[in-house]
Structures are given as C-alpha cells and as structure tokens.
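re: that complex we talked abt at group meeting.

here r the seqs, copy pasted straight from the sheet so there may be weird spacing, ignore it
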Amino acid sequence: MILLMLVLMLLFFALGTPIAWSMALAASIYMAFGAHVSLQAMVQRLIGGIDTFPLLAVPFFILAGNLMNTGGITHRLVGLSRALIGHIKGGLAHVVVITNVIMAGMSGSGVADATGTGAVLIPAMKRDGYGAPFSAAIVAAAATIGPIIPPSILFVVYGSLANVSIGRLFLGGAIPGLVMGVCLIVAVYFIARIRAYPAGRRATIREFGRAVLDAALPLGMPLIILGGIVGGVTTPTEAAAAGAAYAFILGFFVYREIKLADLGRLIVESAVATAAIGIIISASQPFGWVLAFEQAPAAVVAFVRELHLSTWELLLALNLIMLVVGCFMEGLAIMVMVTPIILPLLASAGIDPLHFGVVFTLNIMIGNITPPVGMIMYVVCALGKITIAQFTKEIWPFLIALLVALGVVTFVPIVTMWLPDTVMPAR
Amino acid sequence: MVAPLRFVLKNLEEVIAGTLLVLMAMATLLNVVARYFFNSPVPWADEFSRYAFIWLVFVGAVVCTKQGRHISIDLVVTALPARIRPFVQILADVATAALMLIIIYYGWILTASATQPTSTLKVPQYIVYMIVPLSALLILLRTAMDIVRATRASLASGARR
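got the structure back, here u go
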C-alpha cells in the first residue's frame, strides 16, 4: 500500500501536478483507503505543518533578499569586491565569488543571490569578454554559497523539520560556506590562467576607501541578523524581520533606489514566493504522517543496519543518492520528504543532525545547478540568454570544485561543528 | 477612484497576501522593540504572525495557481510529443481538482467544528481555519477553468487534423 502511494505520487509528479498537491493527494488516498482515518486529519496536518513560529523567518528572509536586490545594496557589494580582488587575472569571475560570499551573509536564498549578482555581473563580464556561458556558470556556482553561509532559508526549514537549533545551524554553515568560496576561487584561478582572462585595474587607495565606505552600511546586515541570534537578543524569525526592515530603510530612505511604485510589487512577489515554499512544507506533513504510520523510518534503519556500513560509507552513499536525485528534483521537495525518514537513521549511525543538515543543504544547492532541473541554473540561463546545453559545458569545473568542498564538509565534521560548539554550545 | 478599486478587486489575492506579509513583519518587529527597549513584550504578536502566515501561504497558493508558479516537475511533460501534452495537462488538473474537493469538504467540517478561542488573541479558531477550504475553492475554480480551456484546445487541434 505504501508503495502504491509512492508510485501514485511519482505519477502525479510526472503529469506536472504541483509537487505540493501530488504529495497531499497521494497521502489522502493512503489515509482513506490504507489507514482508514478521516481525511479531516489530513487537512489538520496541512495547517499544523506551517503553524510554527521558526518558519516565519522564511518570508522575512525572502523579503530582505528582494529589498537588497532592488535597493542598491547588491551593486555596492559588487563595488567592494571589485576593489578587493578585481585586479588579479580573471578579476570579474573572482568578484562574482567574493560578492556572493558577502551576499550570503545577508540573504538566505540562492535564487535571490543569483538574480541579484547575475543581473549586475553577467552583463559586466560579457563586456569584458568572458562569454555569456562562463559568466552564467560562475554566478550559478557562487550563488550556491548563499544558503550555506548564514542566514539561510533552507536551514530554517531543516531546523524546524528536524528540531535542530536554527542558531546553531546558522553558525555551522559559516565555515563550510567559506570552504566552498575558496574551492571556487581556486577553480577560477586555473581557468583564468588557461584561457588568459583579463585582469581589472588595481583600485587606488582613494577608490578602495570609497568602495569600503559605500558598502559599510549594508555590511551592518550580518551583524543585525547573526548578532541578534547568537547574542540571544532575538529569535531567528525576529532577526529575519529586523534584517528586512534594515534593508528597507537602506533602500528606501538612505539610497532611495526603491520607488514607492516598486514597493507593492516587491512585497507581493515576496509573499507569493513564500507561498510556493510554504505550501510544499504544508503538504509534506500528511505525507510524513503516512510514513510514520507505516513505520517507514524504522524500516529504513533496519534495512541500512543489514548493510553493515561504516558511518563514512553511509555518508558517502547518502551523498551519492542525494546528488543523483538532486539533478532531477527540486531541493526543497527532497528536504521535506527525506528529513523525517532520515533522522532516526542519523541517530542510529551516530551522525549529528546539525552536521547532516549542512551536508544535506550543500547537496541540495549542488542539485540547483546540475541539469536538467535546477532553479539557480534556470535563473542564470535566463539572465545570460544562454541554453542549458551551453551552461552545462561551462559548469563542470565549478561542479568539481563544489564536490571537493562537499567532500571536506561531509568527512571532516569539525569544519561544521567547531563554530557552533564554540560559540553556542548545545544545552 | 474607480481604477484603483478595479485593480484591487482584480488582484485581491495578491493584495491580501502582500498585506499579510507586511502585518506579520510589523507585529514581529513591534514585539522585538517592545521587549528589548521597553521590557514589555506584546503577548499577541507571535500568535498573530503565526496565523497570518497560515493565511499568507494558502492565499498565496491561489496566486501561485493563478500565475502558474507552483513548483512542479515539467521534465516529463516537456519530453512528450506536443500532440498529447493537452491530455496530460488535463489529467494533472484533474488530480489537483480532486485534492481541492477533499480539502473543501473536510476543511469545511474542520472549520465548522473549530469554535474554541485561540490562546492569546481569543478569536474563534475557525477564523484561522476557514482560509483553507476557501482558498481550495478558489483554486478549484481556476483549475476547472484550465480544464475547460485545455479541452477546447485539444478539441480544436483534433478538428484541424
């Protein structure tokens, strides 16, 4: 019966029925005919699944990201990165990586980062002769850092599904995100040497000072968000709201780049993007109920125990499965379906759910830039006006770089655990 | 005066979703400021934001249907020959419509029975729940319109052959 439910769900997926409805409908069919419970319980779970305070951080982070991209914050960060690193070979490609690392400390969404940095940097790179496919590829690869370095929408979702402290998850992502940045910088360095990409002019002291001054106010954003959470002043949700308010004040009152007419559109856009994510989380709850009713998590634990895998082999296997599935499926959908099944497995294998959350999210982000399905890939292909085939030809060196980072984060847990254990030890 | 009114009515779901987002953010910020600077937290703020979020997600789901922005997998559909795509589209819509009927029926029962007041706002629980069958109804209507449109299109293309 549970297999029938899964087959039905995949069938609905294939028909193109929205992922949320596919999950809820398959679960309803099981609940009515397999478990013989009233479907009132299904509706109750739809509501219960999104009735949690931590999830409220999601809309606020989405809003903050949109406000930053419209409000002139993004291009000030680009200016700062350019002054920092623009003068070395392949300058603008390095600028893409550094800008995304800084952006990642303010925004929680890879798609928002790709949209914001891509809109500014892909045209600039094209002008400097990098070619659209390469430019789009490096923007996509760098944007995957966004949800790893705090704040992060995916960490909020994972934290509320897995009952892991969102503050600790945020800290856990910081060093892995920097590792990703370093791996990408190395990849860019070699490609730039082979292809003799141009270097920008070195910024004068005066220009450098100007760029730092320009970016000073936006750089207050990570302080507000992380400082609030780590200092125990605010919950992650409140910190997200404060971040959105700060981005609004900068964009509307200080830089005056957000016009009143844009504001309504921007808010509605954020609300709709929130709903697209929220409805999937909501619909995953009846699905999770069915899995629990069938004792699927225990069955998975028993099955894996039979295989006698070491922790490392298990982590490797999980990574491979997630990478393959991630090529074809939307990351958030994978996260809401897999997390309830996998938590007991982690406990029995002695893997910290915080460590796994970072590994999981990194996998999902890689899935976002691997064809044929990937939100970030779609965004940069549209921005660079290139096809997915052109994108695929240029993305692979960066994929290798990110896989190296994934390997480090997966097999050296201390990279993830050190910062949260030092700054915010678990109680 | 008429033009803005017409705009609001035409984009009612969008306006409601956007307003809810702003209200949620304001309630949350108000709570931080009141607690941190005045040492007197606003007791209803968290509950209000939580319920506004439920409304936001379900009203927003209607907008997603309206604008075709639900996250779905189009990998299989785009690989199919153009001739049979409308039929697959109809099947996909029928699945959506079936779920909406379930949500409307059982959501209505749930809403009608939820009369107990919420913990701090003291409003009846059905105020929160009623958005679920309501938005399912709106999605059902839009999906039904889609089915009619797709049926017409496939009939028309059939007649041409």
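couple things i noticed - Residues 72-161 of chain B form one domain. Residues 97 and 140 of chain B are 5 Å apart (CA to CA).
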